[in-house]
Amino acid sequence: MSLRTLGLSFGHGGRPLLAGIDLTVEKGESVALVGVNGSGKSTLLRLLSGVLPPGSGTVELDGRPLARMSRRQIARRIAVMHQALPPVPGLTVRQLVHQGRYPGQGPLGMLRTPGHDPATEEALALTGLTGLAERVLDTLSGGERQRARLALALAQEADILFLDEPTAHLDIRHRLEVLELVRELRAARGLTVVTVLHELDHAARFTDRIVALHRGAVHADGPPSAVLTPDLLSEVFGVAGRVVIDEIHHHPRCIPDAPLPTGPAENRSSAPSRG
Question: Whole-prediction pTM value?
């Protein structure tokens, strides 16, 4: 299995956001997308998952363009953990997670299958939500809501998992819990995982490969030890800093020391505030 982009470009409001992206993600890889706000991380994830159509270029899954596949066909292979849950009053955790079964079962299958189907129950168990299954989503804590989002994606039983800022708005303990869980699930299920992350140290610790986006293009792509350098901190993130090796986990850690007089935010064209 491989997911590949060829000359992928996309614009928003008449302004280019991504241009000429050539990227390949192989089966079983864990890839982090990093960059400043507005660099196109979340947009690239939406393009890779077929949610957005490219302005030009193609996205291919096993050599087949996503543009020639139906949304349901794509959803059988690619599951996305979105940044927010749907605002449905009274929706319980189990009801939400069960919606992940739609790509595999279709509308008639969803009517025939009870809410306690095996894939839904497994997704709840894997994310530690079995005891909260009948809770209404609005009553959950931030960490519990993140796990519910992850369980919804896992219930699809897809072999590719996209995570859009899975640690946003979480305290440090819950960030680590979510990232550790994703790493365990990847190993257990043989998943291919692509994650949008802001924390460079987490990208280095929990993924095998980092793709840094800057000014609508891939600035660097490779293992964390090769990508995370003082030059990257300066050129992409607009800070002077150092990179050291963690003595316990042996991955690179970034130490930002000071903002540079002119950072990337001042140099790039206007773009949405997220991504």
Answer: 0.88
